[in-house]
Structures are given as C-alpha cells and as structure tokens.
Design goal:
Length: 310
C-alpha cells in the first residue's frame, strides 16, 4: 500500500480553551521559575557552605541538577504550546525529547537508590560512613548512573522509533512519551512493547529492591537504638528522602502500570505533569523544610549576602 512517512507529530497538549491556556501559562511559568530558583539555590548553598560538604549533600546537588535538566526538557515546550497555535513537533524533536525523558528518568531512579544506600551506611555503619562513602566513590556512582541512563535511553528510543510511522500523527499528550508514540506505529508493536517492559523492569526492579532492603536494615537499626533522641534524629535524616521516593515512584508507577492507559489519557496527563514538572519544584522544598543543616546554611548564606549588599 502507498503511505507517507510521518515527518511531524501533533501534540494535543493540556487544554484547548484560550482562557484556560492563559491561566495554565501563568501557573507553569511560576512552577518553572520556582524550580530553577530552588534547585540553583540548593546547588549554590551546598557548594558554598562547608558544613554541607558531605556525601549526602553532594548527591542532593546532583539531584537538583537533574531536576533542572528534567524540567527544562518539558516545561519550555509546554509554555510555548500555550502561546502558539502550532502544536507540532518535528520527528527529530520528538526523538530527542523521548531520549532526554528516558535518560533523566533513569538517572533520577538510580540516584535515589544511591541516596538510600547513603542513608543506610550513615545509620547502620556511622563510624565507617566517610570511609565507605568517599568522594571518589560518590563521583564513580554518579558517572555510572549517567552511563546507565545513556544506555537505557539509547536502547528504548531506538526501539520505539525503529517502527514505521505513516499516520495518524496526533499524540494525545504534551510530550513524546513512549506509549502514546507506539500507538501511532503502522506495524505490530508486540515485540517493541516486550523490549520496553524488559528494559524498564531491568531499571526499576533492582532499584526498588535495593531501596526496600536498605530501609529494612535502617528500620531494624533504628528500633535497636536505646535513645529516643537518636531514633528521632535517624528518622529525621530519612524523612526527606522517603518523601522524595514516594512522590517520584508513586506517580511514575501510577502512569506506567495502568492496565489500559488509552482509556485514561486525562488522568495520565495530570500524573505526568506531576512527576515531570511539579516534583522537580518540590524536591528542594522537601529537602530543606525538615533539615536543620540546610536551614542553618540558608541563614548564614542570607546573612553573608545581606552584608555584601549593605
């Protein structure tokens, strides 16, 4: 049969009404600005405050950098869609967006695992903490997460776009996610879906297992502590990370483990907005509101800046 190869995709976005688009533009512009200010501020605070020069805060600064990059993949394109009538994205642009989405998602998953291991060492082996979590090991682990992210992104993106696309070209989403794109393929996607599930499981199952085992040991260690103050401090150091884990994995699983995602596109869009745009804004708040070290560093930083100004 004669067919034409798709060169552009149409992203339906989040809304059609002009008034709603203006409101959403203002909301997402505020979210994106808060994300940039919060995460850049966290990176600057960790870099300039000597009490925060520890493995935990080094990993947190890497997480802030990933959140900035992840949000920048989606939000500027979404803001543009609220202002322009042209909702199309080129085939190459769609490939790049999907590749970056998978890369940043994979890196964040692995980084949260490393942070869970960091808390495990800090609570279960406090005397060996700085020996085990050396600066060299932290850098090696971060480089490894980036390498795995590149590999997973390359395989998954190549797997998705190896299929022929001959129309239709309308994606009922605000970015080029894997499932909506595969629904537009002109050939059978069974093998492609199996490969996608395999590599997704290869990333998610080991990471969740390590997190569960780490916090299992942490819980046992905390319960064995005789001092209530020591227990409170241990729980406090884990609370922020557990909150970040719950927000990220909870929203991702609700999006990608639906039995019939085609019947809940609006629901999927809302959850996707949450883990791609909202969570990068929340992470600096989660790690600062319950953290005395960060609060103290913020006060010192503000005081030093005010002295320079006046």
């Amino acid at each position: 049969q004669n067919y034409s190869t798709v060169t552009r995709f149409i992203l339906l976005g989040l809304a059609d009404q002009a008034d709603l688009k203006q409101l959403l533009f203002a909301i997402f512009l505020l979210i994106y600005s808060t994300t940039l200010v919060g995460n850049l501020g966290m990176i600057d605070l960790i870099r300039t405050s000597s009490p925060l020069h520890t493995p935990m805060y080094f990993l947190l600064s890497v997480l802030s950098f990933i959140d900035i990059c992840n949000s920048s993949v989606f939000t500027p394109r979404l803001l543009t869609s609220f202002l322009l009538t042209d909702q199309s994205i080129s085939f190459a642009g769609c490939v790049v967006q999907m590749a970056l989405m998978i890369f940043h998602g994979t890196v964040e998953c692995l980084l949260l695992v490393i942070m869970a291991y960091d808390r495990f060492v800090a609570i279960c082996h406090p005397l060996l903490y700085h020996t085990i979590m050396s600066k060299r090991l932290c850098i090696q682990l971060v480089v490894l997460t980036y390498a795995v992210g590149v590999f997973n992104s390359a395989v998954q993106t190549a797997n998705a776009f190896s299929l022929p696309f001959c129309g239709p070209n309308i994606i009922d989403h605000y970015f080029c996610d894997i499932r909506p794109v595969l629904q537009l393929a002109c050939s059978d996607t069974t093998t492609t879906n199996i490969i996608m599930v395999f590599f997704t499981s290869l990333t998610s199952v080991p990471t969740i297992s390590v997190i569960l085992v780490s916090y299992g040991y942490i819980l046992v260690t905390i319960c064995r502590m005789r001092s209530l103050e020591a227990q409170r401090r241990a729980f406090s150091t884990c609370a922020s990370h557990l909150t970040a884990l719950s927000l990220f994995y909870g929203s991702v699983f609700l999006v990608y483990l639906q039995p019939n995602p085609e019947s809940a596109s609006a629901y999927t869009k809302i959850l996707s907005v949450f883990y791609t745009i909202v969570i990068p804004m929340l992470n600096p708040l989660v790690y600062s509101l319950r953290n005395k070290d960060v609060k103290a560093a913020v006060r010192v930083r503000v005081l030093n800046l005010s002295r320079k100004v006046f």
